[in-house]
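Course exercise 7: structure representation. Students receive a sequence record and must write out the corresponding structure in token form. The form below is the worked example handed out in class, using DinB family protein (167 residues). Read each field label carefully; the graders check that inputs and outputs are placed in the correct fields and that the protein name is recorded exactly as given.

STUDENT ID: A-19
EXERCISE PROTEIN: DinB family protein
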Amino acid sequence: MADQEREDLISILANQRDLFRITVRGIDDEQARRRTTASELTLGGLLHHLISCERHWTTVLVERDETAALDPAQFDGEYVMAEGETVAGLLAEWDEVAAATAELIRTVDSLDTSVPTPTAPWSPERIWWTVRYTLLHILREIAHHSGHADIIREELDGANSTYSRIA
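STUDENT ANSWER:
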């Protein structure tokens, strides 16, 4: 079930992921773990979070669980590139998540379908989002954290999504 809106959503998500990829291009695993600002955020941690975030929201779209609740403990380490993780491995994992997201966008019943979101301590009442809104939320997360990544990368070595120093 392909239509232009679905293909546009796939394309804009891919474009935003590509901008983030440009920002992390050429860094090694040690650089990905390095803090460069007052924030605890790192390039590897942001990459880890974006993968987790996209996987979480596409799971919400598939499962449509009206009893789902988030446990804040699940976010421990959310913004950390774990010891065994590598930039290359995380980027490959993101490719898999992105392919699954594209397949979901192409096959989901309707972008207008309302889906229950998990409750959380900061949102105890169940909220329903359309599939479209949830996909746009994923886009917003990637765009939001791409800005953080640009600042972190500029402090790391002067590069960003506009200009990455590649040897």
